[in-house]
Structure formats: structure tokens, C-alpha cells
Design a protein that fits this description.
Elements lengths: L1 H25 L6 H6 L5 H11 L5 H13 L13 H36 L4 H15 L2 H15 L12 E3 L2 E3 L4 H34 L2 H8 L4 H38 L5 H10 L3 H29 L1 H12 L1
Antiparallel strand pairs: 1-2
Helix pairs in contact: 1-12, 5-6, 5-8, 5-10, 6-8, 7-8, 8-10, 10-11, 10-12, 11-12
Length: about 325
């Protein structure tokens, strides 16, 4: 188990280095940060001085090595646009994005599993068919269109919820949250629904398909032959085996939620990392863009490791296989 974890961590570190290299290489061609910072009227002397101050006159290998060395210490340089440390900008925006992503993931996973189990148990019922029809809508519609539709209904027509912003927040040390204020909770509802709806439909359809497959397995027939109650079979035996592949997909979807939060944050003007990345692209702010992509890659690496360990804990076949391999 320890060897597997260490090997996964080493692979994750290589992934982060590869993502940093690709991002740092590609973003060199999105624009000239010196021109964006000084404008077209700046003299050649001004541009030369700023280029030297930012370290852009160094060869690419030197710039990349400097970036990796700083990233290992939790520093990603200075924003070309704002002149502040990128780590400070990320620290300010991180609570908003994580709060939105975690709530969306909880909503999508919880509702997806419940609806998927219901649709599998009552596969021919009217509500089950209605749920499956709604899932097709969730899979087909783009995220921004769902967000705009929610804004039109709940903010423009009904005027129940705010259409943009995060509302009032409360500082808890360096962390700030909107869950402790009424306006903050209302501001979270539509972004959470928008970001989590696609993930919900995906998880729901996966749970239904896996549940129906497990219900046809031999051990389920054996349990019925022994006289075990149907509800016990469905919720104890079938659901447990259904959750093994679902954990893998649902865990990886958490990384997708954070990556796809860019669209939701743009629609609702949410002050998170996605909005920071969009502004960085417009101004060719390479340190911010590279740091954001490394953050997303790090989330995927950590989540993938947690999913693998959870899968190992849920599936007894993996544990027995590991013990046999160790004994051999």
C-alpha cells in the first residue's frame, strides 16, 4: 500500500512538471505582457527595462527552471498585470472557487446517487422515465445556457435570487465564506446548480446502469433464493457493488468541476480562480495562467490518488490480491 502511494505521488509530480512545461511554453505565444503593461506609446528603453525586471530577457530554459523552483516553494512569480504575487492572488480567490466546487460536487454526487438508485429500482415507473428524460436535457445543454436560463427565471422573472456576485462573506482567518450570511447562501444557489447539473446527470445515469447490471448478477439471485428481502438486496448488496465504479467517476468529476468552473464563474461574475484565469488570458499574464493550470493539475493528481485508495478500500478483491502478491 505504501509503495503504491509513493509510486502514485512520483507519477503525480511528473504530471505537474509536464503540465507546467506545456503551459509555460504555450502561453509565451498568447501575447506580449510588456506591451500590455506599458501600452503602445512606451519607448524602447522602457520596454527593455521592464523586460529585464520581469526576467523575460533570459532564455526559456532559465525562465522555466526559475518558475519550477519557485513553484516548489509555493511561489509562482509576480502577476504581469497586477504587479502582485501570484500566490497572494490565488489565496484570495481560492475560497470562492473551492466553496463553489465542493458544494456542486456534494449536490451532484448525493442527488445523482439517489436519483440513479430510484431510476434503477423503478425502471418502468413514470417518475423514473421523467428523471431519465431530464438527464438527457442535462447532458445536452451547455453549462452557460443552464446558467443563463436560471438567471432569467429566478433573478429576472421571480427576483428570488441575485444574478451575480458572491454576496456578503465572513472572514475566518485567511478563508472567507458566504455560507454564514443570507446573501452569501442565496448567491451560491444558482452557481451550484449550474455547475453541478451536468455532473449530476452523468453520475445518475452511471448509477442506474451499474445498478441494473449488478441486479442481474449471480450473487443477487442467490440472495433472493435464500429469502433475503428485496430492499436489503437493493440497498445493501447491489448498491455497495454499484458504488465501486461510481466512486472512480465521481472522484474524477471533482477535478472536472474545478476545471469547468471557469464558465460558471464567468456567467455569474463569481470572484474565483476561473475569473482570474480569464482576465489573465486577456492580458497575457503568463505566471497567473501557468499557476492556475498547475493548480487544476494538482487537484486531479490528489483526487486520483484519493480515488485509488478509496477503490482499494471498497473492493476486497484488490486487498486480497495485494496480500497474495506480498506473500508470494
Amino acid at each position: 500500500m505504501l509503495a503504491y502511494s509513493l509510486r502514485s505521488l512520483a507519477q503525480g509530480a511528473l504530471v505537474l512538471v509536464a503540465v507546467a512545461f506545456i503551459a509555460f511554453s504555450m502561453f509565451r505565444f498568447v501575447g506580449d505582457p510588456v506591451v500590455n503593461m506599458l501600452g503602445q506609446e512606451a519607448t524602447l528603453q522602457d520596454r527593455r527595462e521592464l523586460t529585464e525586471r520581469l526576467g523575460l530577457d533570459a532564455p526559456f530554459p532559465v525562465q522555466f527552471a526559475r518558475f519550477i523552483g519557485n513553484a516548489a516553494r509555493g511561489e509562482f512569480g509576480v502577476s504581469y498585470r497586477q504587479g502582485r504575487k501570484v500566490s497572494d492572488l490565488i489565496r484570495e480567490r481560492l475560497p470562492a472557487t473551492l466553496e463553489l466546487a465542493l458544494l456542486s460536487a456534494i449536490f451532484a454526487t448525493g442527488a445523482g446517487i439517489l436519483l440513479g438508485v430510484y431510476a434503477a429500482i423503478n425502471r418502468d415507473g413514470f417518475l423514473s422515465n421523467l428523471v431519465m428524460t431530464g438527464s438527457l436535457v442535462g447532458v445536452s445543454l451547455p453549462t452557460f445556457l443552464i446558467g443563463i436560463g436560471l438567471i432569467y427565471v429566478f433573478a429576472v422573472e421571480l427576483r428570488w435570487l441575485p444574478s451575480f456576485g458572491r454576496g456578503e462573506t465572513v472572514a475566518l482567518g485567511w478563508w472567507n465564506t458566504g455560507l454564514l450570511t443570507d446573501s452569501g447562501r442565496k448567491s451560491l444557489i444558482m452557481p451550484v446548480l449550474t455547475l453541478g447539473f451536468f455532473q449530476l446527470t452523468l453520475i445518475m445515469r452511471l448509477v442506474r446502469a451499474e445498478m441494473l447490471e449488478v441486479m442481474r448478477a449471480e450473487f443477487i439471485r442467490f440472495a433472493r433464493a435464500r429469502g433475503v428481502g428485496e430492499r436489503t438486496i437493493q440497498l445493501r448488496h447491489a448498491l455497495r457493488n454499484t458504488l465501486i465504479p461510481v466512486v472512480t467517476i465521481a472522484g474524477l468529476q471533482l477535478g472536472s468541476v474545478i476545471a469547468f468552473a471557469i464558465v460558471t464563474e464567468t456567467v455569474f461574475q463569481w470572484p474565483g480562480l476561473g475569473a482570474l484565469f480569464v482576465n489573465a488570458v486577456q492580458f497575457a499574464d503568463v505566471p497567473v495562467m501557468a499557476a492556475y493550470l498547475m493548480f487544476v493539475a494538482a487537484v486531479f493528481v490528489v483526487v486520483n490518488l484519493i480515488v485509488d485508495l478509496t477503490y482499494f478500500a471498497l473492493d476486497p478483491r484488490l486487498r486480497s490480491g495485494a496480500r497474495l502478491a506480498k506473500g508470494h
